[in-house]
């Protein structure tokens, strides 16, 4: 089943590569809308391939197939990120509306969801297991550590005994207790005992309430059913088989590589030397020996690689060069081996020896080439001495009518997946566009903090909290602040992938600090944190995420200089507010015909998911759940609790949109729109006199 799914994904990937890597260069497009349509179509198609390959990699047990699928999967993820950046650069907006593309491809909005690969967390747990492996030590070292610990224990014990003896020497002889003292002691003992009993009862009641609200599972449902046990057993068997086959594969790779190096190594080196000497002779016909390429440039390998011809640049819109298409093309060619391979005799899905030999020959050639190049550089120098003596749906329609639509929460989730989750993958991070810091801007209660935790959950990232309220009073002084940032970024690199969260990010860039917040020193990190941000290198999977609810009174220039990606999170639209159904069911409510969800969704315009949860918690109590059979839930019950909260008004949302227009990306978009308007006006004026002449 999964081999067939892999084949389907590869067929679609082959079509995409033919379109993106044609034999003749692609001409620039003049029409911006047509160019965006092309990029959006590629983006959606790559996304479907990504979803299929992720399923295949999670279930296939053959070690070599898994490697090829993973390589292809990471290449597709990287290409998705490149196309996303392409759309942002050309449309000058983080959010895009591809309803027309979905219609053309006969897909649904659910097909645009980014499926977080399961192997992200499995790799994270594997890294943790490797970190916990203890290092072996000699017997003498172990004895020395035990002796040091025992001496310290004895010292602490002697100090405690000395302190106790000093106290006893100062205490007078105890007198016989009086009856009144005994009564007070009995009352005190009773007081503490009753408090203990009451706390124990309260804890039992709290556990019962949490079980009733669905926050903890009921004891009778904690034992998994037979189907779940079977599914878990199958999943465990697959994972164990994957690890077993991977271990066998690694052993075979080492053995085969050593054998090839011993048997074929000398012949490979001699062939390389002859090829390079021939190049020396051909170049010397011009009268001058060539410069030998450095190892950083690829060494002698670049001399015999196929060179792409360069075309003159034409005015128009073209896509930026891709770092992933070459890898995808290589993976696509390798897939032919498996497509034509009959595996009826390989029922256990063990590794293929011949394929290992082909792959290791490439690695061995690279290893040998370094040594050969070193020898040939010296030989070239000798030749020079002898001869010469010296010498780099609706959104589309609205934008077509110059109306900028507000993004939905689904659009926000897409951006979080593209900017926050996929780039934290090890291989994708190496070649994908580097994003060091993201700023989430939106009203209170829209789920900014939840998105930060979602990124950590999906990627297995380590979370560091540098919010002003969290670091207030910690590591005081300039030296203390420098030490704190040094420790945080050092541990973040060691425990990568890592997320450094800054709640209330606007406080760091206040123009004027409010009196009530001066005690926490909100601008404490303003100078040092951007400097630390520059120290994050391309290989560091460390992401800084700031959450901000009121950016209007901040220094926008400094804020946007630190956060290269600004994601505006709006108040929920009608489709996003249909979340009522999920939240009510989660809290134990039952959806019936008496509950008009459509009306409830409509009247809750302006309210955030945080408001919805609080209203539901007030309505769906333990007693109300018991009464649902006789008196079903109705929409009117949620109106009164919801009305107690202040909604996010249209004015607040418009103020955020105006602020976003002042960001670098917003300014570019406004400038591009103005240039298009001037161009249209100039074209209209040019046509005007011609029409009058005809009349």
From TrEMBL:
Give UniProt keywords alphabetically.
ATP-binding, Nucleotide-binding
GO MF annotation: an example = ATP hydrolysis activity
Give TM segment ranges: none
- Quote the CDD domains the UniProt record gives: IQCD
SMART domains per UniProt: AAA, IQ
User: Domain AAA+ ATPase, which positions?
Assistant: 434-568
Protein's name according to its UniProt entry: IQ motif containing with AAA domain 1
């Amino acid at each position: 089943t999964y081999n067939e799914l892999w084949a389907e994904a590869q067929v679609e990937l082959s079509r995409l590569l033919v379109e993106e890597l044609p034999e003749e260069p692609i001409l620039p497009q003049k029409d911006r809308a047509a160019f965006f349509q092309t990029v959006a179509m590629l983006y959606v198609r790559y996304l479907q391939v990504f979803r299929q390959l992720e399923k295949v990699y999670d279930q296939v047990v053959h070690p070599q197939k898994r490697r090829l699928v993973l390589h292809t999967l990471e290449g597709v993820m990287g290409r998705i990120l490149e196309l996303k950046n392409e759309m942002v650069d050309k449309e000058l907006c983080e959010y895009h509306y591809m309803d027309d593309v979905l219609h053309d491809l006969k897909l649904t909005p659910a097909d645009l969801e980014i499926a977080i690969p399961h192997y992200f967390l499995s790799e994270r747990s594997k890294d943790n297991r490797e970190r916990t492996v203890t290092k072996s030590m000699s017997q003498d070292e172990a004895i020395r550590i035990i002796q040091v610990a025992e001496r310290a224990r004895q010292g602490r014990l002697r100090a405690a005994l000395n302190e106790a003896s000093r106290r006893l020497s100062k205490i007078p002889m105890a007198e016989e207790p009086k009856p009144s003292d005994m009564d007070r002691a009995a009352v005190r003992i009773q007081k503490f005992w009753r408090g203990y009993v009451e706390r124990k009862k309260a804890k039992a009641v709290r556990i019962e309430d949490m079980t009733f609200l669905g926050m903890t599972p009921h004891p009778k449902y904690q034992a998994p059913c037979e189907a779940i046990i079977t599914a878990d057993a199958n999943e465990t068997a697959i994972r164990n088989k994957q690890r077993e086959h991977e271990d066998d594969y690694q052993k075979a790779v080492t053995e085969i590589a050593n054998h090839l190096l011993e048997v074929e190594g000398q012949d490979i080196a001699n062939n390389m030397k002859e090829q390079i000497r021939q190049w020396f002779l051909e170049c010397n016909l011009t009268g001058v020996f060539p410069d030998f390429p450095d190892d950083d440039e690829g060494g002698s390998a670049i001399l015999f690689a196929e060179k792409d011809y360069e075309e003159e640049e034409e005015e128009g819109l073209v896509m930026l060069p891709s770092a992933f298409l070459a890898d995808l093309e290589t993976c696509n060619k390798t897939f032919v081996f498996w497509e034509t391979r009959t595996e009826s005799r390989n029922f256990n899905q063990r590794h293929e020896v011949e394929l290992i030999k082909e792959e290791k020959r490439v690695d061995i050639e690279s290893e040998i080439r370094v040594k050969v190049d070193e020898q040939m550089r010296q030989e070239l120098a000798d030749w020079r001495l002898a001869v010469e003596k010296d010498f780099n749906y609706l959104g589309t329609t609205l934008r077509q009518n110059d109306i900028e639509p507000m993004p939905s929460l689904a659009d926000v989730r897409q951006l979080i997946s593209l900017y926050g989750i996929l780039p934290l993958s090890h291989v994708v991070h190496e070649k994908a566009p580097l994003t060091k810091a993201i700023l989430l801007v939106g009203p209170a209660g829209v789920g900014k903090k939840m998105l930060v935790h979602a990124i950590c959950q999906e990627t297995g990232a380590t979370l560091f909290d540098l919010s002003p309220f969290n670091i207030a009073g910690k590591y005081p002084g300039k030296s203390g602040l420098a030490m704190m940032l040094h420790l945080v970024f050092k541990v973040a690199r060691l425990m990568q992938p890592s997320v450094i969260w800054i709640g209330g990010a606007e406080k760091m860039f206040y123009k004027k600090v409010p009196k009530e917040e001066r005690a926490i020193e909100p601008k404490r990190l303003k100078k040092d944190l951007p400097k630390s941000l520059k120290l994050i290198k391309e290989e560091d999977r460390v992401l800084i995420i700031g959450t901000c609810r009121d950016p209007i009174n901040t220094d926008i220039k400094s804020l946007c200089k630190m956060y290269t990606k600004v994601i505006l999170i709006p108040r929920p639209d009608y489709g996003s507010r249909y979340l009522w159904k999920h939240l009510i069911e989660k809290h134990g409510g039952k959806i019936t015909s008496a509950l008009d969800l459509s009306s409830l969704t409509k009247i809750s315009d302006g309210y955030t998911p945080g408001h919805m949860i609080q209203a539901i918690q007030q309505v769906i109590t333990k007693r109300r759940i018991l009464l649902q059979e006789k008196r079903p839930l109705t929409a009117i019950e949620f109106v009164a609790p919801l009305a107690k909260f202040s909604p996010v008004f249209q004015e607040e949302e418009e103020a955020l949109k105006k602020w976003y227009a002042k960001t670098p990306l917003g300014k570019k978009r406004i400038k591009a729109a103005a240039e298009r308007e001037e161009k249209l006006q100039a074209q209209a004026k040019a046509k005007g006199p011609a029409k009058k002449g005809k009349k």
